[in-house]
Amino acid sequence: MTLVAAVRGSQLHRERLGPLARFMVDLVRYGAASAAALSIDAATLLVLNKAFGVPYLVASAIGFLSGLVVVYVLSVRYVYDDARALRPSLEIAGFLATGLVGLGLTQALMALFVGALAWPVLAGKVPTVAVVFLFNFLSRRMLLFSNSSK
Question: What is the pLDDT of residues 103-141, one digit of tens each?
Fold first, then answer.
């Protein structure tokens, strides 16, 4: 059984849960979607930077945007499938807007960790991922999928 099937097929029906339980279900589901997106993001970053010599900030941006596509598809299909609050066109625009803020955070944090503190690229990616994950989850849940708080 795949991770997505386990999350999707779980006996957790959001409409029967209280607000905290719904929040936790969303967090776990978004975490799984983000893990898939992160694998694409990090692989793209490392391949572009290490194998092709692309500057780390450019490679980081390309990786982030690749992961953004993956997390959007998984979010609307598996994470917030019963909590969508906006028309799809507005939802995509909002997802992209929060993603661009997340990209800005990613770039700033990578510049700090790798550029200013001289950490290795992968070491700088770790705390960056944690901060951007929390920002993305909370902002998308509050702004785009507000039916999740019913």
Answer: 899 999 999 999 999 999 989 999 999 999 999 999 988
Angle (deg, nearest 10), helices 88-110 and 56-74: 150
Task: Report CA-CA distances (Å) from 130 to 32, 82, 110, 127, 135.
Answer: 14, 26, 12, 5, 9
Sign of torsion, CA 59 40 103 129?
Answer: negative
